[in-house]
Write a structure and sequence with these properties.
74% of the residues lie in helices and 4% in strands. By secondary structure, it is mostly helical.
């Protein structure tokens, strides 16, 4: 069917995109993002790497190593059946919880910029909150499969997972890691909603979360300072609003097509954390609005592919896989949205990376593990559907 007004190349492009499978879209969008990430980490970090370590490629090399570790991790995770994840999801959750407890122990946890979120392992670091994102989704997916009727009909079915989440959030806020807390809470709420939990419970929990969020903001002066800086960063552009102001300047300099790769000015010691939390701002400066739109389309395609993989698993009757895919899609989507929102001044500043793009070993490795789980779900649900088609075909042939 031809659409009036579309040229032949446009028809070919539309037909090609429509013929892509969820697996292909997932791989293409993820590949685009981690290639952009590798390029941008190298571009954004050269100045600070040269000044701090005497090697302009210091962070680029480490990021490349983390990419290799991430690919090896994905290859291993791809071999694990979803039934095994279902069987041991609670054990994995308890391991992640133990890591969060360990990181809070003085002398073991590594403090950076006032937050104790990392465990030093040789020359590398592990961020337990990243592991918890995957563990929380898997554990809740297992719970929803085992207690689906209770979740839909009783308050206890909703309250039990929220109690465990409250413990996780309390420990994360002690680090403190407000960004990871928000991502995990959002994913859990989304999964419970998709599992059919009553709407009235969401309204009550949402109200409690808002009240608790206000209390958390008020409890720590630095959080209130960040919140006020976010509402009007120009009021204190050389103090609490400095980071956001420099980020907005980067977006302004980017214009339509950017200043060109490697030509960013803001990364030259004006924009703090230029290769981690604010790499998107440097990307916008160097590639402009057109580049930003391409990256946003890639993120949207990745999240959409993950959701469609979940739908396919649900149609195949694999509910644990379906809930896992939905939760992981929310994790990637909400973390990307928050990071981008922080860069453009839509949200207060939080220490969250842009998945597959920002520098950060733990984040990168866990995202590769997430992608591997999604690919495993797609493969298993696809094989179930193929067996169903064969049975239906065999039945029809026998009837004839």
């Amino acid at each position: 069917m031809r659409v009036p007004g579309l040229s032949q190349p446009a028809h070919l492009l539309r037909d090609s995109l429509a013929s892509l499978t969820e697996r292909q879209v997932l791989l293409l969008s993820a590949g685009f993002l981690f290639c952009i990430g590798l390029i941008m980490v190298g571009s954004a970090s050269m100045g600070v790497a040269d000044a701090s370590y005497g090697n302009p490629f210091y962070f680029f090399i480490r990021h490349f190593i983390y990419l290799g570790i991430g690919l090896l991790t994905a290859a291993v995770v791809m071999q694990i059946p979803m039934q095994t994840w279902n069987q041991y999801c609670y054990h994995f959750f308890l391991l992640a919880l133990l890591l969060i407890l360990v990181v809070l122990i003085p002398g073991i946890g590594k403090r950076v910029n006032g937050s104790m979120r990392w465990i030093g392992v040789g020359g590398l670091t592990l961020q337990p909150s990243e592991v918890m994102k995957l563990a929380a989704v898997l554990a809740l997916a297992g719970y929803l499969v085992r207690r689906q009727e209770e979740v839909r009909s009783k308050l206890s079915g909703f309250a039990k997972p929220m109690a465990f989440v409250a413990i996780v959030l309390f420990l994360l806020l002690m680090e403190p890691d407000f960004g990871a807390s928000l991502v995990i809470l959002t994913a859990v709420m989304a999964m419970l909603f998709l599992a059919g939990a009553p709407l009235v419970q969401f309204i009550a929990i949402s109200g409690a979360v808002v009240v608790a969020g206000i209390a958390v903001m008020i409890a720590e002066p630095y959080r209130m300072k960040r919140l006020l800086a976010f509402t009007n960063p120009w009021e204190d552009q050389y103090g609490s609003g400095y980071q956001l102001v420099q980020s907005l300047i980067a977006f302004g300099r980017g214009d339509w097509f950017g200043v060109g790769l490697g030509h960013s000015v803001q990364k030259l010691f004006y924009l703090p954390e230029a290769h981690t939390d604010f790499v998107f701002a440097v990307y916008a400066e160097e590639f402009g609005l057109v580049g930003v739109l391409c990256l946003l389309l890639a993120v949207a395609a990745l999240v959409t592919a993950a959701l469609r993989i979940g739908q396919r698993a649900e149609r195949a009757g694999q509910y644990f896989s379906a809930y896992t895919a939905y939760g992981l899609a929310v994790i990637i989507g909400i973390q990307s949205a928050i990071n981008i929102g922080v860069n453009i001044g839509f949200f207060p500043t939080k220490g969250l990376t842009l998945p597959l793009v920002s520098y950060g070993g733990s984040s990168l490795i866990v995202v590769f593990a997430i992608l591997a789980v999604l690919l495993r779900i797609d493969a298993e649900s696809g094989s179930v559907q193929e067996r169903g088609v064969r049975r239906a075909g065999g039945g029809d042939h026998g009837a004839r």
